[in-house]
Amino acid sequence: MKILIVNTSDIDGGAARAAYRLHKALLNNNVDSQMLVQSKSSDDFTVSCCSSKIQKGLNKLRPILDAIPIRQYDNKTLFSTSWIPSYKIVNKINDLAPDIVHLHWINAGMLKIEDLARIKAPIVWSLHDMWAFTGGCHYDELCGAYKDKCGECVVLVSKTKNDISRKIFYRKQKAYSNISNMTIIGLSNWLKTCAQESSLFQGKKIVNLPNPINTKVFKPFDNARARELWGLPADKKLVLFGAMGATTDARKGFNELSCALKILSRDDVEFVVFGATLPLNPPDLGCRVHYMGSLSDDVSLITLYSAVDLMVVPSLQENLSNAIVESLACGTPVVGFDIGGNSDLIDHKVNGYLAKPFEIVDLARGIEWVLDSDQYINLSLNSRDKIVRELDSDVVVEKYISLYKEILND
Q1: What is the β-pairing status of strands 352-355 and 47-48?
Q2: Burial group, residue 173, by CB count within 10 angstroms (0-12, 13-18, 19+)
Q3: Per CATH, which fold does 223-390 belong to?
Q4: CA–CA gap between residue 167 and residue 162 (Å, rounded)
Q5: pTM for the whole thing?
Q6: pLDDT tens digits along 352-376
Q7: DSSP letter at 367?
Q8: 133, 135, 163, 229: which is deepest, by most CB within 10 A?
Q9: Residue 125 burial (10 A CB sphere; 0-12, 13-18, 19+)
């Protein structure tokens, strides 16, 4: 069985890391897996991209070109149009002749919607956000228009019914109708349900499977040693927050978390942020803040998760957060709003706390509940146990292999 994992990049970004982990898990289970990307950062010979210097240069322009059609709009968050021809990438996919093409995050101009129908092998598509079934947004900001046909896009701040979001929606509708064998994977139960509600995926097989994580790598590290390595205080309770664009992407909930920390107003608590550096005018959060910058390697992440007492993921919309999975695997409880895929990972008052959606006071209450719990050691043990039982690579990869076999035997 020959599997081709397709993602815009190999290790840069949450979706890339998740796709790469699946790729490595398949290889470790003797599956012939290869990864095809638009932008390669690793030196892994099992990952390929377009090799010519000219093509690599053009690939750097593709994200810029993809954004041209939406310049007239006032969007503040990511919106992908997927209009740039991608015949060379599709030709490469077909030349590799895989038994199954497993798509992941294919934006930043990597694959044109219409070109998906030219892929000869059966398609499996893991949804890392909502883009596959919307008119172009990656998260719909709770508008729900994807259930019908989009238009008047709230992400684009558009008041026009027949705006570009509706046109892209119709392009997807036509393109998907020309794909006879496509299985959709919602990485969380929430995203699976959203995909089922979309008119674009009517008649398509939709299943729920999580991302795998290697719990032999992501595991607890000595707390005191980790704090020493990071230069963090030994006598404070540390609350961690982190994501790509941690303090700039409103969906990540930094503003909500900032308000919650001000409510706490405790001298024994300090705040740690990764995914952002110290801003020119740092906000007053009522406590000392340690800005760690961007982290990409596993060792840095593992030691930082292990250095803190608690991870907070206050996202307003979230699929299956890598940060939650990684933190729990390292034995660090997590607090987040009870939205999206968070309840797939956080068991309320068992390995963390699920706050009522967007209620700042309850988010603060959850942070305090974990920090002051007399059962903290159990919370930590439960955190690790949850991921080992349900998301460990060896457990999850068998489910993917079974799905691939089922598709090939149909």
Answers
A1: unpaired
A2: middle
A3: Rossmann fold (3.40.50)
A4: 7
A5: 0.92
A6: 999 999 999 999 999 999 999 999 9
A7: H
A8: 135
A9: buried
